[in-house]
Amino acid sequence: MHIFVLGTGMIGTTVVTEMVKFPEIDRITAVDVNQASIDKCLAIANNPKVIGKVAALQTEEDIARVLTGADVAVACLPHSLSLSAVKAAISSHCHLVDLVGSQFREKMELDEQAKKAGVIIVPGCGVAPGITNFLAAQGIDLLDEADEAIMTCGGIPRHPIPPLWYQVVYRLESLLRLYTKPAIAIQDGEIVELAPLSNLQEITFPEPVGLCETVITDAHSTAFILKGKVKNLYEKTVRYPGHWEKMKVIGELGFLDDIPVAVQGISITPRAFAEKVLATKMKGDSHKDITVLRVEVSGTKDGARTKHRWEMVDLYDDERNITSMAKTTALPALLIAKLIATKQITETGVVPIESLIIRDRFQPFMAELKRLGLDLEYTEEIFE
């Protein structure tokens, strides 16, 4: 079985290096536009099953040429290339696992095309979106009536420093998109659009994290897939105290706008300028990070008030020498790719992870995540 990994950055390299450990996978092609990035990935993987391929990945046509002959691909590409990757996979008759959860409605419009091509497209397949999605779906499924699902997640530095108490653990482009995009949620059974960085709240996680803050961010596919199954659903993103207020002021002043302005005769968007400036302010004292996750689903079961809760505090992986964000994002994607490659997932169409990893597939998938180093603590509370 031949797997293609598109993009050999931090997460793509983690997908490759963990995928080679599966005996069911015969060959992995690591694709990138940059030879140096591929060479680094191959050196870390250090396995004859992995080969590198330099290729253009800028357009749908570029990606389609790369995917010709591939069985399954894992897209570890920027948000701007996600929809192109989906279309390319369909035209190439290649199954695709995509880390990006944005543009879900546009991707769902390709559902029939994917079915006709006989392929499955799994969007938003990381930690959030990804793990948080199927935990919410499973929690709702365990209840007779679900009132609320709250998906909370965030990548934060192990050793935060001022002024923003944050370090970039993935693309800054994607981060600022998160900070500026209106948040899709479910309120009173209806899909709503909330303002970016709204509903600031405190939250506490076990040590070494402690007190943090959350704001509501985009719930991606869960709002559309789980509508009608839960009254209220929100996704929240975690940062250390003070970060959100500072970013909100930066946004209010217009520094995250995407409309070009002229500066000394040069046209530039405020967001592009902010990316350059903020990049230097989003570096920690250490490359070590933490991923925190908490999903709570409450409602009734057999007439009793019930809450299902999953929680994770995952630290930098010293054994693998990879960030927690790379690990927690890569592992769900590569496991889904393996299930597709081994025909344990046979659905076709555009199918989000919350429609795949529930019921009979849920516990085996959770057990496999634990075996690979992601341990989520589960508790059930019943209120008489």
Description:
This protein has 384 residues and is an alpha/beta fold. It is 33% helix and 30% strand. The strands form 4 sheets. The protein has a 7-stranded parallel β-sheet, with helices on both faces. α1 runs parallel beside α2. The protein is globular, with a radius of gyration of 20 Å.
Nutshell version of this structure?
With 384 residues, this protein is an alpha/beta fold.
State the distance separating the first and last CA atoms.
Answer: 51 Å
Please give the largest β-sheet: 7 strands, parallel
Q: What's the oligomerization state?
A: single chain
Q: Roughly how many Å is the radius of gyration?
A: 20 Å
Task: Furnish the topology, listing elements before pairings.
Blueprint: E1 2-6, H1 10-19, E2 27-32, H2 35-45, E3 50-54, H3 60-67, E4 72-75, H4 82-91, E5 95-98, H5 104-108, H6 111-117, E6 120-122, H7 131-141, E7 145-157, H8 172-180, E8 183-187, E9 190-194, E10 198-205, E11 210-217, H9 221-225, E12 230-239, H10 243-252, E13 261-263, E14 266-268, H11 270-281, E15 289-301, E16 304-315, H12 324-341, E17 349-350, H13 362-371, E18 377-383
Parallel strand pairs: 1-2, 1-4, 2-3, 4-5, 5-6, 6-17, 7-12
Antiparallel strand pairs: 7-15, 8-9, 10-11, 11-12, 13-14, 15-16, 16-18
State the main characteristics.
single chain; about 375 residues; alpha/beta; seven-stranded parallel sheet; 18 strands; about 35% helix
